[in-house]
């Protein structure tokens, strides 16, 4: 594994992931090559879109590489106590790449980001209750700044907020904190709500929903939908 | 349904699966969307369940609106799932609108399987499943996750499911047959995990590698499912 100065790896596929390192969980990238000699390039961009790391790898065939990203995110700015970034994977079709967030006891796989852009919106279901909290991770996969809009559908209420995303940057949005005044529910109750994400221009934005559910006292399980 | 504009899509449909047991239930979420058209035109959602005892069953849900996400618990619209827990069920989700100018091509859906309070949400496979190249995924076994493949066959023909390691594609890992109108969870055999060198990680030994499955028909969908290694509950599902 070696750092490179420029993306010279011949690639066929480009995938975008949101990755992170925090006291609670971190991202691990799993890489598997069907044949020796295939190279992939990993690029990490901090929340403001600055390139903070590039890694070129030529994984040996027949053995899964597991790359914990904590060390590669050390130069990343902290946001909400978490170092997070956009990971761009450039790979040939013969290499399989997966991403997993994991803490000490659990791991949840995440696919490449769902991408929205002008006119194409997406949605996520959120279950509002005491035991679950939600983070939206947004990554600007384009090379121009853009604005994403997030609308909560909570009964008849539909508040909206906007998120500014620098080129290649990323942002985190806590659904519970951003819409706290609307998410007042009685203890022990559950309410089904939705968030809708959209943009107005053609800059593509990748989105993930991360759920933290309380498994037992002080123990949490994370899941991701993209 | 006939469109006045041949370029519009007034039907959007997906194929997926749910789990209906005493401990697990399934929610279907849908989002009729027409891109930049934000007027709340009416839309309908038809849910069809198969892989049950007897013929497939359908329910039409009225009252959906374009640009508004909505959802239902499967057991509310198919009460028989409460009375007779079925295990894996196949689900077709179909969104329609009678508005000729509304194009539903930007619509989406999410299935949510809840087991013991833990939810796994995933996008179903858009129909028809047209991908012709092999679908590749990581088959992993470690202290966090186990891996299996869910195959949903909505067609009228039996399909053969052959899993191969990308490292030795000439030797199938496992071969299964799936009856028409059925859903199956295909386990990755122990022999595969024993055949690859383990990697020592901070969290223990990780065994596995990339596995591929060849697509078989446009009405067959494939999902990789990762379960929590300790509780065996589904934690991540992804359409291949």
Highlighted features:
heterodimer; A: 226 residues; mainly beta; five-stranded antiparallel β-sheet; 18 strands; 55% strand; globular; disordered N terminus; B: 240 residues; 6% helix
Short description:
The complex is a heterodimer of chains A (226) and B (240). With 226 residues, chain A is mainly beta.
What is the strand and helix layout of this fold?
The complex is a heterodimer of chains A (226) and B (240).
Chain A: E1 13-21, E2 26-33, E3 40-45, E4 51-57, E5 65-68, E6 78-79, E7 82-91, E8 95-102, E9 107-110, E10 114-116, E11 122-128, E12 132-140, E13 146-153, E14 160-165, E15 170-174, H1 175-178, E16 191-199, E17 205-216, E18 219-225
Antiparallel strand pairs in A: 1-7, 2-5, 2-8, 3-4, 3-7, 6-7, 8-9, 10-17, 11-16, 12-15, 12-17, 13-14, 13-16, 17-18
Chain B: E1 11-20, E2 24-31, E3 42-50, E4 57-65, E5 70-73, H1 74-77, H2 80-83, E6 87-96, E7 108-115, E8 118-122, E9 125-126, E10 135-141, E11 145-153, E12 159-165, E13 172-178, E14 182-187, H3 190-195, E15 199-201, E16 204-213, E17 220-228, E18 234-239
Antiparallel strand pairs in B: 1-6, 1-9, 2-5, 2-7, 3-4, 3-6, 7-8, 10-16, 11-14, 11-17, 12-13, 12-16, 15-16, 17-18
Q: Topology as H/E string of chain B?
A: EEEEEHHEEEEEEEEEHEEEE
Count of helical stretches of chain A: 1
Largest sheet of chain A: 5 strands, antiparallel
Order of helices and strands of chain A: EEEEEEEEEEEEEEEHEEE
Let me know the largest β-sheet of chain B: 5 strands, antiparallel
Nearest-angstrom radius of gyration of chain A? 18 Å
The CA-CA distance between the termini of chain B, in Å, is: 29 Å
Q: What is the mean pLDDT of chain A?
A: 90
**Unreliable sequence segments of chain A:** 1-8
Beta strand count of chain A: 18
Strand order of the largest sheet of chain B: 4-3-6-1-9
Average predicted confidence as pLDDT of chain B = 90
Sum up the overall morphology of chain A in one term.
Answer: globular
> Which range best describes the helical content of chain B: under 10%, 10-25%, 25-40%, 40-55%, 55-70% or over 70%?
under 10%
Helical fraction of chain A: under 10%
Distance between the termini of chain A: 29 Å
Residue windows where pLDDT falls under 50 for at least 5 positions of chain B:
none
Q: Assess the beta-strand content of chain B as a share of residues.
A: over 45%
Care to count the β-strands of chain B? Answer: 18
Strand residues, percent of chain A: over 45%
């Amino acid at each position: 594994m070696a750092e490179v100065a420029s993306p010279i790896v011949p690639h066929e596929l480009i995938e975008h992931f949101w990755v992170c390192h925090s006291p609670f969980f971190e991202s691990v990238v799993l890489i598997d090559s069907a044949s020796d000699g295939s190279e992939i390039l990993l690029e990490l961009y901090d929340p403001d879109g600055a390139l903070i790391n590039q890694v070129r790898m030529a994984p040996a065939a027949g053995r899964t590489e597991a790359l914990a990203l904590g060390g590669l995110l050390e130069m990343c700015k902290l946001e909400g106590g978490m170092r997070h970034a956009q990971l761009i994977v450039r790979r040939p079709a013969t290499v399989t790449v997966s991403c997993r967030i994991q803490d000490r006891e659990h791991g949840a796989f995440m696919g490449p980001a769902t991408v929205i852009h002008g006119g194409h919106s997406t949605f996520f279901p959120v279950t509002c209750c005491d035991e679950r909290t939600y983070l939206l991770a947004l990554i600007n996969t384009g090379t121009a700044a853009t604005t994403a809009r997030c609308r909560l559908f909570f009964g008849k209420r539909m508040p909206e907020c906007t998120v500014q995303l620098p080129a290649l940057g990323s942002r985190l949005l806590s659904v519970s904190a951003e819409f706290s005044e609307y998410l007042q529910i009685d203890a022990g109750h559950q309410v089904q709500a939705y968030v809708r994400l959209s943009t107005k221009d053609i800059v593509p934005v990748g989105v993930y929903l991360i759920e933290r559910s309380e498994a037992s006292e002080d123990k949490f399980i994370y899941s991701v939908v993209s | 349904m006939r469109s006045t504009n041949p370029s519009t899509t007034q039907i959007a449909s997906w194929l997926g699966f749910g789990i209906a047991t005493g401990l697990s239930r399934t929610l279907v979420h849908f989002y009729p969307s027409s891109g930049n058209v934000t007027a709340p035109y009416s839309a309908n959602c038809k849910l069809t369940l198969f892989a049950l005892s007897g013929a497939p069953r359908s329910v039409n849900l009225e009252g959906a609106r374009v640009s508004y996400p909505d959802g239902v618990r499967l057991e509310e619209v198919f009460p028989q799932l409460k009375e007779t827990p079925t295990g894996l069920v196949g689900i077709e989700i179909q969104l329609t609108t009678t508005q000729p100018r509304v194009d539903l091509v930007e619509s989406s859906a999410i299935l949510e399987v809840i087991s013991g309070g833990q939810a796994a949400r995933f996008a179903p496979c858009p129909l028809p499943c047209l991908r012709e190249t092999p679908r590749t995924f990581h088959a992993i076994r470690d202290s966090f996750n186990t891996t299996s493949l869910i195959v949903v066959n909505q067609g009228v023909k039996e399909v053969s499911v052959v899993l191969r390691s990308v490292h030795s594609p000439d030797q199938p890992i496992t071969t299964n047959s799936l009856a028409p109108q059925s859903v199956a969870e295909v386990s990755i055999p122990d022999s595969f995990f024993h055949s690859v060198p383990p990697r020592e990680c901070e969290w223990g030994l990780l065994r596995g590698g990339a596995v591929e499955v060849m697509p078989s028909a446009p009405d067959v969908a494939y999902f990789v499912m990762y379960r929590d290694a300790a509780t065996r509950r589904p934690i991540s599902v992804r359409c291949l």
